[in-house]
Design a protein that fits this description.
6-stranded mixed sheet; 2 domains; alpha/beta; 9 strands; 3-stranded antiparallel sheet; single chain; Rossmann fold; 15 helices; about 475 residues
Amino acid sequence: MIEPLRIAIVGHTNAGKSSIVAALTRRDELRISDEHGTTRDVDEWTFEIGGEAVLTFLDTPGFDRAGAINEWLDEAAGPSATAADDPDLVARFIAEADPALFRSEQRALSAALRADVLAYVADATVKPKGQARQEVRLLGKAGPPVIGVVNVIEGPHRDAWFELFGRQKIHNKVLLDAMNFQPEQEARFYRALVSVLPDREAHFDRIAELRAAEEAGRAIQVRRCIAQTLVDVLSFQIEELTGSRHEATKRREGVEARFRSAIVGREAEGFRQLLELYGFKKAGVEGAVEVDFEGDWQASLFDAEVAKRYGASVTTLTLVGAAAGAPFELFGAHGLAAGAGALLGFVSGHYVGRFAIGSVDRSGRLTVGPLESIQMPIILVNRAIEAWKEIDTRSHASAAGAVVTGDQQHLGTADILRLKKLAKKASKNPTWSSMSEAFDAVGRADTVDEFAAFVGDVLEGARTPPDEGPPG
């Protein structure tokens, strides 16, 4: 166990201080807004990794009158005052200054006095002015060492901020982007802290160790989350005994709609579980922000456009068929007709319409499902991976935004053949779906493990390379 390091996040109003804290702590319930002065008090957030508290962030109100405070301090300092007296003078200002004029600054400076280190956050989209120089000069009197954090890596004024920091003797600076926060940026931040707190290097080594263990554990959970969703969806069937073929035929359309609804709902639940694994809160949690999937995530899994975007191309399926030595068998129980339908009508969605066709036998037994065992599993896996990629790289500072994904194809011929084998195994065992009334959790356990191993291999190939931007 390590004693949490106290980091005061300070700077001008609306520079992105709370966003930086949200990104670093993986907390999406912080009060973040474009409105001026959203943070009016000091918010204290303890950052835990694996249940171990490692950092405490003091998110402070912004400075608006640093120049006036510096004048107050200069006037209050006696002729024999030295830099060692500065923290006492700052404490005196906090106690004596008019709160009606300086309440926000007094609170921010109080946090600065009890911190181990100060991180001054600058907005790189805004050109630094005299007020910024006054703020940096003021914070230099608080006592703790100061690092410069330039927020928004592509901001047009980042070099100007670096120059200002250099003139103010702040040589330890780092580039971050709260809204596009990547692991390498976190590492840069910690390196900057070590540079001003060399005696705490072991502290940050411990954080790196905990972070690696957390990520390894979450990777296992992510694979199982996606695997369980796939087994639930691919094994799901609805079977009803109606008493007559006529009655079954009459009820078929409604049961098919119920089948599709259950499949879509289970996929959406899988997305929500992924969000929770990464610390994004569900709707209804007080103070939390819901993350929404928009665009084609709102479209039915059975929509033709969804199939076009996430399904395998005809060329890919032809290659898969050649590799398997049985081109049309790949399209499941519907045989040649279904395969031909896919090849001839895929773009128009004719094949999509065959994804969940029910069947009625002479006794009146109505059966809907399972999903066919090639194109639908491919669509499900591609969608899950695209969702995971977005969530895996998503900053908690941008939690209110919608999840927007690409349309990459992540499965090669060998992957599709492997997936087909697993999908067909699931399709033959309807009790493996948690949506089944006769759910058999034990019976499906080995297959979930096989799906998880498959998903893990595909995710490894789909991972976005880490940000390698300038180290600052």
